[in-house]
Structure formats: structure tokens, C-alpha cells
Give the backbone structure.
Amino acid sequence: MRPRVKVTNKILSAFIVCMAFMTIWVQTSRSAGSSPGEIVAVDAGHGGYDDGIVYNTRSGQQIKEKDADLEIARAIISTLRAGGTGAFAVRPIDRYMDLSQRARAVQAKSPDLFLSIHLSSTGAFNIYVTSVPQGQDDLKQFYLYSNRQRPYIEKSRGFAQALEQSIRQAFPGVNVSYMEIPLPLLDRIGAPAVMLECPGPAYFNYRDTNTAGRIAQVVANAVMVFNAKR
Ligand SMILES: [Zn+2]
């Protein structure tokens, strides 16, 4: 009987050592980079063969939404990082990504906040949160949804509100709308999630890099307000 006890003890010791390492690893990986509550996933809409809105300027230049989205997303990420907030790009380059690929790229890094950038076809900023079906009357609809967004919907609304205020302050003459509509990408996100449509290329000059910078500052302010409230 004795050797068996020894073997069991060795296995038990090895298990305890493994668990200790796991605990240390989990703690260090959590504390690496930014503090919890401050990692923002920034998604640039469209990409690859999907141009989004295409606008022809009077001088014959073509502005594609996918490029403007990417430039705004990049400006947001660098502005957030400069202010000490962690941020990463869901679509870092000009390539096509479907909704599942985007959702997987987001979930892989467990961000604390998700923002998807698009352009609108009007001169307004449009802010969207997904509409989560309420109650049991919508049971069928309920099961059509990926329910990852459900626990975060109030926080999503909170970030949308912070974003709306920040935009109104920085762009006083520009219309801002807020809507809740079914958004399959946002449904798949397990974090507060908002989609922002910036004014279309007929209204904002996206050839001027300062435009993306101004929008980035507005978003960074909203993130700061949102994080302070949590
Ligand atoms: Zn778009």
C-alpha cells in the first residue's frame, strides 16, 4: 500500500504546484497592460471589397467609407492610448471581415468596451445600441438573439449617453441622434457596445486628417466620463 500512497502524494503535490502557477499566471496576465475597466475594442466598419458609402468629390476624388472608418478608428486608438487607456483594433487593416470574425476578434481579448465606427449618409452623428427584446412575449425573438449583449445593455446605454454629450459639446452645430435597433454585431459582444455613425463624406472633410483627430478626442472624452462613472 505504501508506494501507492507515495504516488498519490506526488500527483497531489504536482497538482498543487500547477494550481499555484495557474493562479500566478492568471493574476499577471490580468494586471498586464491597462487596469481592468479600460480596454476598448475599436471596430472600423466594412473593409476589403466592402467599401461602405462611396462619395465622389467635385475634384473627382473618391472617398470610401472603409478608409475613413479605418482612419477614425486608428485616431481613436492612438488618442486613447496616449491618455493611458488600452485600446485595440478589431480590423487593423483594409480587409474584409464578416460579423462572426469581428465578434471573435473582440471576444478573444475580452475588452471592457466596444465601439464600431461607420459613416452616415447624412450630416448627422448617429449613435446606436442594439435593441434587446423584452419579456416573454418576445420569446421566439429572444432565442434568435445571441444573448451576450443582454447583461451589458444598461452600460451600453450609459456609454451612448456619454458619447452623445461629448459630441454635442465638441460639434454644437451638428445633429446627433440616438437609436436602439437590432444590430447583429452588437448582439454578439459581451461588453458595453455602441455603434457610431459619423457625418457622411459630403458633410465632413475626411481628406483632412484633423477630422479623424477631432472625432477621436470626442470619443476619448466619452470613454473617460464613462469609466469615471463605473
Ligand atoms: Zn458603414
